[in-house]
Amino acid sequence: MRKLRTIEMNRLSPAEFKQAKKLPLVVVLDDVRSLYNVGSVFRSGDAFRIEGLYLCGITATPPNAEIHKTALGGEDSVAWRYFQRTEEAVLALKADGYFVYSVEQVEGSMMLQDLTIDPKLGAKGYAVILGNEVKGVKQEVVDMSDGCLEIPQFGTKHSLNVSTTAGIVMWEFARKMLMGRV
């Protein structure tokens, strides 16, 4: 096997990306403190061509050299908005017809693999909220969510890095929405 060169991968240009149809998914970062994590989420968001990224609270915003270090330009292709409070982002998403999930371990959470995409639930699309590296999604934000998703884990740790979580969740939405595995 021979590794492909970048030119052989037929990737979109940033201008083509902005015009292309997006996965109807908005990722919300609730007080994510690491700029490298923010950059990684931008990069994954570009890979899955998500509709947008909402940066909330203490979450840093572009332009920023540390975000760029891991985003590698994803911060230029993925649409983003800043909200001072995550609750404001949730209210805006719900007003626009999004079905909002928090990704958090809570009583009654749904395992990610059990997610069913129902266009009637998310008339406009879906949003997923990812929380702070230590505290997770704030309880007030969990309370505002339409549901909670959880990634099954089998080791001794009780959580994954937020950027790892973002990639797993985006992949599952893309897999189910784009590949007919509803």
Automatic annotation (TrEMBL):
The keyword Magnesium does not apply. One of its GO terms (biological process) is methylation. Gene3D superfamilies: 3.40.1280.10. InterPro entries: Alpha/beta_knot_MTases, rRNA_MeTrfase_TrmH, SpoU_MeTrfase, tRNA_m1G_MTases_N. GO terms for molecular function: RNA binding; RNA methyltransferase activity. The keyword Transferase applies. Keywords: Methyltransferase, Transferase. Residues 25-171 form the tRNA/rRNA methyltransferase SpoU type domain. Pfam families: SpoU_methylase. One of its GO terms (cellular component) is cytosol. It comes from the Bacteria. This is tRNA/rRNA methyltransferase SpoU type domain-containing protein. It comes from Segatella maculosa OT 289.
